[in-house]
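Record minuted for completeness.

…
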Amino acid sequence: MQTASTNIGERLCNKSIRDISWLLNIPRSAVSGIMTKWKQLGTTATQLPSGTPRHMTERGQRMLKRTVRRSRQLSAESIAKDIQTSCDLQMSPTTVCRELHGMGFHG
């Protein structure tokens, strides 16, 4: 990906495709392909991120951590209800458990 960003940067400095190819030691067809993709899509990424988007934002994660540290005896269901009322986030107890495991809380 470093090559693609360097390629775009050089092109923005009004360098020709031939010069960029020579500087980066990559074929002209590759430089041309990268530039075409960047002009059409605005990015050089080849794939979209896989999976579904995360349910919790960083703010929600901080609130979840604060809630658990305040009272460690709460169940995942009660934590989910508490976050639902305070943050307006629809979240299942399974998601709460998964997020807590990711933060290092177990049991």
About this structure: The first helix runs from residue 2 to 12. Helices lie at 2-12, 17-24, 28-41, 58-70, 76-87, 93-103. The chain has six helices and no strands. The mean pLDDT is 81.
